[in-house]
Amino acid sequence: MVAAKSFPLPMVDDSRELEVVRFVGAAHHTQLDHVAHEEPLEIRIDGTAIATVMRTPGDDEDLVRGFLLSEGIVASLEQVASLHHCSTAPHPEAEDNVVQVRLAAGVPLDLERLRRSTVSSSSCGVCGKAAIDYARQYLPPLDDARRFDVATLYRMPALLRAAQAGFARSGGLHAAGLFSAEGELLMVREDVGRHNAVDKVLGAVLARSPPAPGACLLVSGRVSWELVHKAARARVPVLAGVSAPTSLAVRAAAALGLTLVGFLRGEAMNLYSCPERVRAAR
Question: For the chain, is the Cβ count within 10 Å smaller at the N or the C terminus?
Answer without folding.
Answer: N
